[in-house]
Design a protein that fits this description.
single chain, mainly beta, four-stranded antiparallel β-sheet, 1 helix, 10% helix, elongated
């Protein structure tokens, strides 16, 4: 497994409208990447991959999970 793997139950602790960026970072850790597409809103992405390889072939992605946490203008979780 590569990338961010959330601890069991950590995603369920996220609350829309009440938690800040600091709260999310405490629960999930640093995001894999951050993106800003709209003014006053930003999204953090937590990405993990599981790769499989067979003999001498290139490793292939067997599973990939992306968790996106969007923040509103007030700095709280929007979605």
């Amino acid at each position: 497994m590569r990338g961010h793997v959330p601890t069991p139950g950590s995603l369920e602790k996220l609350e829309v409208g009440t938690q800040s960026r600091d709260d999310v970072e405490r629960l999930l850790g640093s995001p894999s990447t951050k993106s800003t597409f709209a003014l006053g809103e930003d999204t953090w992405y937590y990405i993990s991959q599981r790769q499989e390889s067979l003999a001498f072939f290139e490793p292939k992605i067997a599973e990939q999970k992306v968790t996106a946490v969007a923040f509103g203008e007030n700095g709280r979780i929007k979605s």
